[in-house]
Amino acid sequence: MALRISPARVWRERIPRYRLAGRQCRRCGRRHYPPRPACPYCGSRELEEVELPRTGVVETYAVIYTVMDGFRDRAPHPVAVVRLDDGTRVLAPLTDVEPGEIRTGMRVEAVLRRIRRDGEHGLIAYGIAFRPALREPRTRRSQG
Amino acid sequence: MARVYVAGVGVTRVGRHYGRGLLDLAAEAAFRAIDEAGVEPGAVVVTNMLASRLQEQDSLGAYIASGIGLRGRPALHVEAACGSGGAGLYTGYAMVRSGLVDSVLVVGVEKMTDYPTSTVTSALAQAADAEYELFYGASFTGLNALMMRYYMERYGVDRDTMSEWPVMMHENALINPYAQLRRRITREDVARSQVVADPIRLLDSSPIGDGAAAVLLVSEELASKLPEKPSVYIAGAGAATDTVELGSREALDRIPAARMAAEQALRAAGVRPEDIDVGEIHDAFTINAILLIEELGFAERGKAARALAEGRFRPGDRPTLNPSGGLKARGHPVGATGVYQVAEVAMQIRGDFPGVRVEGAETGIAVNMGGDGSTLTAFILRHA
C-alpha cells in the first residue's frame, strides 16, 4: 500500500510547499509552518501569509532505515527538524549529504527536490528538502 | 459526584493470531468482561485504529456490537490513533457519568499481523500529519527518533542509559501470561538490535501484534445492585490534545498534552503524583516512556532515564511503572492499548493481576497516547 499522489492535492499545497510559505500570527507574533487556519500557539484567527527564510540549523535529525512504502529507493532516508533563521520549525528530508556527515546544529538551506514518485501511475511530487548551506547567510534575492 | 465503577475486565493474549479475525478477538475480551460483571451493557464503544485500512471494515460499532450478541444497543467507534483506547474509555466514562446509560462496554481491538511490516508501517504512519510529515517519508518511528535524539543530546543521556527501559519491560513481562514478548534482554541486545530509524533500534520499539481488551463501566447505582459490588472505580479522567505535526509543538522534548490530561485526572480524583502506587504508561518507543515519566512528575526534566538506571519504577518501588511489560513487551495492538492499560491497573488494585503484582496498590494511573503526543488521556483508578 503505497501512499498515493493526488494531482489535486499536490496542486493545492504548491504555495506553502514550493515557496516555504508559513503564517504569522498578528496577535502573538509567532510564525508557524505548515500554514493553519488558526495560530497553534494562541488560537487567534488573525494571520498573515509570510515567506519564511530559507536557511536555518538542524535542530534534530533521524536516519530512517525501515522506510515506508514509496521510499524504498531512498533508504537510508535522513529527515530533520530545521529551525529556520526566524525560529520557525520545518520538518523535511536532508539531501546532498551522507548520513554520517549530519550533525545537530549544522547550517542548511532549502532547495526544491523531487520527493517521490507514485509507483502505480508514475506521478511525481516535489517539495522542500534541506542541504548543507553552500554560502551564508544568503537572502532570497541573492539566490537569483 | 456519582462514581463510575469498573465492573468487569477482559484481555486476550497479544500476538500473532493468524487463525482469528477482528470479531473473534473482540468477542473473547468482551465476553470475559461481561461474564465477570454479570451484567449486559447498555451501550458499546469500540476502539480501533487500523481496521478501516487493514481489514477494510468500517461501521465498527454495529459490526462488533451485533457480532457479540448486543444487537440493538447504541454502539460507537472511537479513533485517536494509538490513543484510541483511552479516547474510547473517556467517551464511555462520559456516557455513564452523564446518566445517559448505566453501563457501557468499552472494547478495544486491533488486527495488525495480516499484512507485511511495510504495509503496517505505512498504515501506522497515518497517526502523523499526512501532508507535511508523511509526504516527506517521515515514518512514525522516524518522528519518534527525532524526539529521541533531541532528548539524548540535550540532556547528555547515552544509549545504554536509554536501554534501561526496554530491559525492565522485558523483565516485567516474563511472567505475564498474555504478554507478546516473554524473554529477557540486556542493554547490549538493545544496542546491537537492528536500526529502524537511528537512534531508534528494534528493541526500543513495541512489537506488531493482534489483541483485544474490554472494560465494562457501570454507574454507582447499578454497581450497588450487582451480586458482587465492584471494588475499583474511576476516580478521575483527563484528556488533552496537541498539534498532530511535530514541528509546531512548543518543544521537542515535551508532551504537554500528557501533563494536561494527567492534571485533570489527578485533580478530579483529589490525589497527587506521589499517591500513585502503580502506573501503566504509553511506551510505544523508549523515548515515549522517558518523556511521560517527566510529564507525570515522577522525575525531573531530563532525569527520567537516569532515574531508571538507578533502579526507580521497578517492582517494589512506588510508583511501579508498567508491571505488565508495557507496550514494549506486553505488546501494542494499537487501538486496543488504552483499554489494556485500564484493565491492568484495575486488576492491580483488585489484587488479581496475573503477572508482576504491586502488593497493596490502592491508586493507579493509566496514560494512553495517540500519535507522537497529539491525543492524551489519563485515568486515575482507586480502590472503592
- Assembly status: heterodimer
The neighbouring-strand order within the major sheet of chain A is: 6-5-4-7-8
| Molecular shape of chain B | globular
Shape by Cα distribution of chain A: globular
Tags for this model:
heterodimer; A: 144 residues; mainly beta; five-stranded antiparallel beta sheet; three-stranded antiparallel beta sheet; 2 helices; 8 strands; globular; B: 384 residues; alpha/beta; Peroxisomal Thiolase, Chain A, domain 1; ten-stranded mixed beta sheet; two-stranded antiparallel ribbon; 19% strand; transferase (chain B); Acetyl-CoA acetyltransferase (chain B); Thiolase_N (chain B); Thiolase-like (chain B); isoprene biosynthesis (chain B)
Description:
The complex is a heterodimer of chains A (144) and B (384). With 144 residues, chain A is mainly β. Chain A has helices spanning 7-12, 14-19, and strands spanning 21-25, 31-32, 47-51, 55-64, 77-84, 89-93, 107-117, 124-132. In chain A, strands 6-5-4-7-8 form a 5-stranded antiparallel β-sheet. A 3-stranded antiparallel β-sheet of chain A has the order 2-1-3. In chain A, a hairpin with a 4-residue loop joins β5 and β6 (89-93). The model of chain A has no long low-confidence stretch (mean pLDDT 89). The two termini of chain B are 14 Å apart. Chain B is globular. Chain B contains 15 helices and 12 strands. The longest helix of chain B has 16 residues, at 22-37. The model of chain B has no long low-confidence stretch (mean pLDDT 97). Chain B has 384 residues and is α/β, with parallel strands linked by helices. Chain A binds chain B through residues 1-3, 9, 13, 32-34, 36, 40-41, 59-71, 74, 76-77, 79-81, 89-93, 99, 104, 115-116, 125, 127, and chain B through 53, 117-119, 121-123, 125, 129, 131-139, 141-143, 145-150, 153, 194-200, 243, 245-248, 250, 252. β4 of chain A pairs antiparallel with β5 (195-198) of chain B. Chain B: Residues 238-382 form the Thiolase C-terminal domain. Chain B: This is Acetyl-CoA acetyltransferase.
